[in-house]
Structure formats: structure tokens, C-alpha cells
Amino acid sequence: MVCSALRRVAHVRVYLVRKASGVSRGHQHQALGSRPAASEFAARGAPGSVVELLGKPYPQDDYSNLSQKVLSRVGRNLHNQQHHPLWLIKERVKEHFYKQYVGRFGTPLFSVYDDLSPVVTTWQNFDSLLIPAGHPSRKKGDNYYLNRTHMLRAHTSAHQWDLLHAGLDAFLVVGDVYRRDQIDSQHYPVFHQLEAVRLFSKHELFAGIKNGESLQLFEQSSRSAHKQETHTMEAMKLVEFDLKQTLTRLVTHLFGDGLDIRWVDCYFPFTHPSFEMEINFHGEWLEVLGCGVMEQQLVNSAGAQDRVGWAFGLGLERLAMILYDIPDIRLFWSEDERFLKQFLVSDINQKVKFQPLSKYPAVINDISFWLPSENYSENDFYDLVRTIGGDLVEKVDLIDKFEHPKPWPTDSVKFQPGLCTITANS
Q1: Which end of the chain is flanked by fewer CB atoms within 10 Å, N or C?
Q2: Best CA proximity match to 65, nearest among 188, 183, 180, 157
Q3: What are phi and psi of 135, to 5 degrees?
Q4: 364-384 b/e with 16+ CB inside 10 Å = b?
Q5: Would you give the DSSP letter of residue 32?
Q6: Where is the secretion signal located (predicted)?
Q7: d(CA 88, CA 90)
């Protein structure tokens, strides 16, 4: 059924592949030595079986698509491992919010939740955030489902509604998130996000504003590019100003003074208006986070009808790669002491520049194979590569595809051949 041809090349098609980063050779050999069992190659659970995750059983069905590679990452919680680079970023952000935003009794205004289970319901991950049925972000090919009702969260926003419903109005959520994605130095099926939410009452938002007692949070009007239909322009402008000022202070704390910042209009289902923040770092504009004014429908459904608010989310790996000059996202999962000890600092704000572990060149392999014409996603192949090759595989490129023009018999299975290049560290 599957026709494959595998050959090792030293210098063919190098133009298609980015140079491999320095992952420690010793760490690679350890990964090679633990060859996965054949049963681990499967990316789907058999309907009727049960998978146990974090001490709870979940029945499998036709939506189950967790690979053993991804399951092995659940519970690692890199953001909570002391002196890990992701932990350093989390602690720097947390320290900033604790110092800058203090409540009436001298206690931190923002509470922090960094140990919430990554297993959520599809309602939490999508419906609570106003993501409609049929939205592309729900696709099985882009997410990791335990079954039709439970999944590994695709974003920390999956906890927004629950925390708002519990009565919280200022909080940070940090955790691992899971998305099926391409294979290269910038993408990994597990990464880490930090989410923040802040709500304001009428008194809190208009305090200190001249004639603020006469201003209102809500009105019934029409939605525009600048505001929601239920918000007054005054309320929206003040929430947007507070959001952008909060984020400007945060990135200044992380990157230093004199940083050029720009805001790009964008779209998220759960905020409006929405923005992406870009910074000019070493002469290059980099997108670092997404944010916006929270959709009032979401806030109302969680029981905070008398408040308005903002939310933002950022990727810890993204910030760490920029701040510490880490070239490959796979390195965050390394247990090599030569990597970890570089971040063993006495001050979380100390500057660190990553030093490469290996200078061995990449090994490039071309592989050709037949693909089914239906019920196939590229992410299915990426999961298979990650399960078999582990973190040795740096990048997978599709370099050619061909569909035979000759009609196939109606009683045969249709296949489409493709050719890709796989880059791995030697």
C-alpha cells in the first residue's frame, strides 16, 4: 500500500532546509537509544478503549488523535521548573505585575494560576470563547482530542470563563498548550502561554476622570471597527489605553527602555477591538503578543455584567528565544545539563545569552511515499515523524507532489505520491 524510498544525502537540496541548530549530541544519542514500540506509532486511539491522563480515564472515540510523543509531554510543566528559561520568563512577568499593580490592602492585584490541568472540555476551549461551530480552529487536524468532548487545551484562554465565573477580575494564567503544527525550529506541538485578564467596574474605570461620575460603561449602538455595540466610546478608549499602557510597561521591563513598539489591528473571536503588539528588536519587527478588549457577551455569560475588561496572551517560548537568543524551540525540552546550567542565575533579571551545545552539521534525508486522497492531514504525518524521530528531527519540508493523471478503477483506493525532505541532527 505504501511505496517509500529513503536515501541519505550530504549536500542535495540544501537550499530547502534551514541549518540545524546545536542540540547536544549526547542528548540525541539518548533519544535514539529509546526506540519507541510499534504501538506508539499510532496517532489514534481505538474507539471503546480508554486512555488515562493525569490520573483520570478518558474513553476513546473517532475523534481521539493523541500521539505517544505528545502524551509524554503532559505533566512536564517546564514553566514551573526552577531556573528553566520558561520559568525565568514567567517569574519576570509575575514579579512585574506583583510590584506594579497592588490592591487596596497592599496585596498583589493579580492572582496567578500556573498549575491548572491542560485537559479541558471542548466547550471551555471553544464555546466559552464564542468560537462558533465549524470555525477552522476547531479542526481535528489542528488540535489534540482525547475524545469528542475533551481535549488538550489549545490556549490558556480556555480557563477565562471559569475564573471570571468564580468572581475573579484580575488574574494571570500560565500553562502548556497543545496544537498540531508543522515541524521547524519555530514550531512544536507543545508550547507555553501566559494569559492575563483585567475587569473594571464603572467606578474603577472612570476614577480620576473629570466628570467621570456622569460617564457610562454601556450603551446600545452599532458595532464598528473601534468598539462593540454595547460599549460607550469613552469606556472603550479607557480600557484600550489601560491595556496598551500595561503591555508597554511589561515589554519595557523585559527588554529595556527605548524600545520601539507598534500596534497592528487583528481579529480574535473573543476580543474586539483586537491588536497584535510588535517590537523593534535589533532592527527587526517581531510580533510578541495578541490582546484586545474582551467581548462583552463573554463577560456577561460569566456573571460580570457590570464590568468591562481586557485580555492578552503571549508565548513564553517566543519571548525566551528572543531574550536569550535560543535558536530552536526543541531546546526547551532538553535535559542536557550544558543547556540547563546556562540559566542557573541568582537574579531572574540577569541577562543570559545561550551558547550552542553542538557544531555537528545536519543530516538530510529525502523520503517519498503514497498518500490517501481523502481523510489525510499534513499534521498526521508530522505527528508520525515526531513519534518515531523524536526531537532529533528539526524540520520537514514538502518539496514536490504528483498526482497520476491516469484514472483509477472505481473499486481501488486512490493514492497520491509526495516527496519531502527531513532534516535531523546527527
Answers
A1: N
A2: 180
A3: -65, 140
A4: bbbbbbebeeeeeebbbbbbe
A5: H
A6: none
A7: 5
